[in-house]
Each structure stands twice: as structure tokens, then as C-alpha cells.
Specification:
This protein has four helices and 28 strands. It is globular and about 65 Å long. The strands form six sheets. The chain has an eight-stranded antiparallel sheet with strand order 1-2-3-4-5-6-7-8, covered by helices on one side. Strands 9-28-27-26 form a four-stranded antiparallel sheet, with no helix packed on it. A four-stranded antiparallel sheet has the order 10-11-12-13, with no helix packed on it. Helices cover 15% and strands 44% of the residues.
Length: 421
């Protein structure tokens, strides 16, 4: 029995180290192309990997196969003036009212073309042009355009929403340093701790004064997804399952670090349930060697962080069926659910799981899917954080856009007794 346990532990460690190693391989590949590259994100897509980085101050996105073969490179550029005039004429004719947000050059082994990113309220559109300024193809990439505030307000399934998602009670606009806010945790009525996904800094935000009051530098750059406060200790989640933790009242520059061996390459959600004294960790990525439609929620106590167990397995197909059945007026055929944050309701014990992709909140009770609520994109650009107050007030945080078209925001909703649509 002991041998089998040791073998299992060894296998888990091996799988975890392999996941870490594979991520490093793609970063090393980028470093060969640009030795001083500032890598800001590495993300596993469907059968390929995207790496976002800055090379000599220039934004670049590179796509690589699982064997690190380069599939495409996208860089921010200025279009030649004659080409830009042709493109503007076409955009004014076919996309009137849209904001021309970003210009990039996409280079593939067999072709090159220009790409224009357009934004209009809840929609994001990629429009492609040939190197001569002619339409190449148009790809609609915003899969979550299915629902808006107007369309959701007419859905009968939305009438019993536990919070007024379509009309937040308060909205807090974040400063530029928290434009890419990725996680929130409430310490008390007026103090919210925040993390953004590119730097090892925890920000202390004063909800009453609506300003940053302090920050804690706990490590160097990384891919930080969420955080939670337990007493005087802040726990910060890195996407590889590593937890950084320190006492924010006695911070002396030193930080503890614990690797939680979960069976996923991409972990995004973290919360602590004061009632059960358990920590919950939500995996955005599928289980290694597991079903592509499953996502796992791990649970553990503070004294057993090295021994997490699966507390809930999310079936994306179940969530998709629920949305299709209960929101027929939205005319959707399927949805995708990738957990980006998690919180436990302090009164009901329900588990609220947020997905930035397709902007959904799924509510589970005793491991059973109770409800799913789509969030309108005209309010929530990229929702990645969720938190409850002790009284049951809800907070959602949403990332902004780098050019300040949309700011990072925190949305506040009063307790359930005051909800309405």
C-alpha cells in the first residue's frame, strides 16, 4: 500500500514537473528569437500554444505547435500610408461606428496579411486584408456576442437571478496599474486586495475612497490569476498551481511558496471558505490525459496543501445543455466554460464559478449544477474575479483594454434580498 502511494505521488510530481517544463520550452524558444524578450503570457490553446511578449518594446504574439514549430507570428505595426487609406475606406463602408483599435501584421510560413482589430460595445471583430489593402477574410471571434443586456432582460430564466447582474449597484473604475485585474479578495468592508496577471504585486484598494492605498511586492513577473485573504495572510495563485503567501500586516519582503500538485497546466481560480476552513482551486485547463470537456475544482485545508482532492468535476457539455435549454430566445447552439474564478456564498454555501470565456456564472450546490447566468458583454469586458462579503454582497472584477478604451473595473451587488432584474 505504501509503495502504491509513493508511486502515485511520484507520478503526480512527474506530471506537474512535465507541465512546468513544457511551458518553459516555449519561453526558451522565444528567448532564442529575442534574447531580451519580456514574456507576459503563455497559453495552451487547442493543439497549439500562444506566447505573448515584448521584444525591444514591440508587442508580438507567436503561435507554436506542440513541437514548438512556429505556426504564425503577429506583430503590432503601422500600415503603409497608401494601404491604410484603402483599408480606411473599406472600414468606413462596412464597419461604420466601430472603433479601429489595433493594427498588426500576421506572418505564416506560406503567407502574410494585415489584421485590424475593431471594437463596438460587446463585440470584437478581426478583419483581414491582403498586403495590397484588399479584403482577405473576416472572422467573427467574439463567441460571447450571443447575449446583451437587452436580450437577457427578456429571458424568463433570468428573472430569478440571485443578483442584479444587468444593473450593478456600484461600479469602481480601476487605475491604469490594475487595467488587467485578474483576481480580488475582500479583507473588510473598505479594503479589497487585487492582483493583476503580469506582475508579482498585490494592490490594496480602498473601496470607500476609491483609490489605491498600498501595494506589496511579493515576487517577480509571472502569470498570477487570483488571490484570497485568510486572516492576516494573503494567498496568491500562479497559473501553474503555485501558491505564494505572506502576512500583509507584517510584510518584510519575504514570501513563502507552496506548489499544489493539481492535474492541470492552467489554474485560475482560488478562494477560501470560512465555514468549512477549506481552500478551493479551479482549473481552467482540462485534466492532463483527461476528457477535454471536463474541468476540475480541487479542495484542501491549509495544513494539507500538498494533498489536494477533487471536490467537483465540471462538465462543460452539461453547462452548455443547460444554457441552450433555459435560454431558447438567445438562439445559441453551445457555449464554452473555462473557470477563471471561484467563490463560496457565505450564507447558502453555493459555489459560484465564473468563466471569462463566454462570460458565464455557474452555480453549484452540493456538487449539483443549479443555475447558469450569462453576463452581458456590454457591461463585463473580461470578467476574471469574484468575491463575497460576509453578508452575501457580491463583487465581480473585469479586465480592461490596454489602450484605456475600457478600464479595469469592480462591480458591486447588494445582498440577495434586494435583487431585481
Amino acid at each position: 500500500m505504501i509503495k502504491r502511494s509513493l508511486l502515485l505521488i511520484s507520478l503526480l510530481i512527474s506530471i506537474f514537473c512535465q507541465a512546468q517544463f513544457e511551458k518553459k520550452v516555449y519561453i526558451d524558444k522565444v528567448k532564442k528569437l529575442c534574447p531580451f524578450a519580456n514574456v507576459v503570457n503563455v497559453e495552451l490553446k487547442n493543439k497549439y500554444v500562444e506566447v505573448e511578449y515584448f521584444c525591444n518594446g514591440k508587442w508580438t504574439l507567436i503561435g507554436m505547435g506542440l513541437n514548438t514549430k512556429i505556426l504564425f507570428t503577429e506583430t503590432k505595426v503601422e500600415f503603409p500610408k497608401p494601404i491604410m487609406e484603402k483599408i480606411k475606406d473599406k472600414l468606413n463602408k462596412h464597419f461604420k461606428g466601430w472603433m479601429d483599435y489595433k493594427h498588426t501584421l500576421v506572418e505564416k510560413p506560406d503567407s502574410s496579411f494585415y489584421k485590424v482589430t475593431l471594437i463596438n460595445n460587446d463585440q470584437e471583430e478581426y478583419v483581414y486584408f491582403t498586403m495590397h489593402g484588399k479584403f482577405n477574410k473576416t472572422i467573427k471571434t467574439t463567441v460571447n456576442r450571443h447575449w446583451t443586456t437587452n436580450s437577457l432582460s427578456k429571458c424568463s430564466a433570468y428573472k430569478d437571478a440571485p443578483y442584479p447582474f444587468l444593473k450593478p449597484d456600484n461600479i469602481y473604475n480601476m487605475p491604469k496599474t490594475l487595467k488587467e485585474i485578474s483576481g480580488i479578495s475582500l479583507a473588510n468592508k473598505h479594503t479589497m486586495f487585487c492582483i493583476q496577471d503580469e506582475s508579482g504585486i498585490v494592490f490594496k484598494y480602498n473601496m470607500e475612497k476609491k483609490e489605491l492605498s498600498k501595494f506589496f511586492h511579493f515576487t517577480h513577473k509571472g502569470d498570477f490569476e487570483d488571490l484570497t485573504v485568510v486572516g492576516d495572510i494573503i494567498y496568491i495563485l500562479r497559473s501553474d498551481g503555485t501558491l505564494f503567501h505572506f502576512n500583509f500586516k507584517k510584510m518584510n519582503g519575504k514570501t513563502n511558496k507552496t506548489v499544489v500538485p493539481v492535474n492541470s497546466m492552467n489554474v485560475e481560480g482560488l478562494c477560501f471558505d470560512k465555514r468549512t476552513k477549506k481552500m478551493y482551486m479551479a482549473c481552467k485547463g482540462q485534466p492532463l490525459n483527461g476528457p477535454i470537456t471536463h474541468r476540475e475544482i480541487y479542495e484542501f485545508t491549509l495544513s494539507s496543501m500538498k494533498k489536494p482532492v477533487i471536490g467537483l468535476t465540471i462538465d462543460m457539455e452539461e453547462i452548455s445543455r443547460w444554457v441552450v435549454k433555459n435560454y431558447p430566445s438567445l438562439h445559441v447552439e453551445d457555449v464554452q466554460f473555462y473557470p477563471s474564478a471561484i467563490a463560496i456564498h457565505p450564507i447558502t454555501g453555493e459555489m459560484y464559478i465564473l468563466s471569462a470565456h463566454d462570460r458565464l456564472i455557474a452555480i453549484y450546490k452540493k456538487q449539483h449544477l443549479e443555475k447558469v447566468y450569462p453576463l452581458p458583454a456590454d457591461i463585463y469586458y473580461k470578467p476574471e474575479g469574484i468575491e463575497f462579503s460576509e453578508k452575501g454582497e457580491l463583487y465581480l472584477s473585469s479586465e480592461g483594454i490596454k489602450d484605456d478604451y475600457v478600464k479595469g473595473q469592480i462591480f458591486h451587488f447588494d445582498s440577495q434580498s434586494k435583487t431585481h432584474v
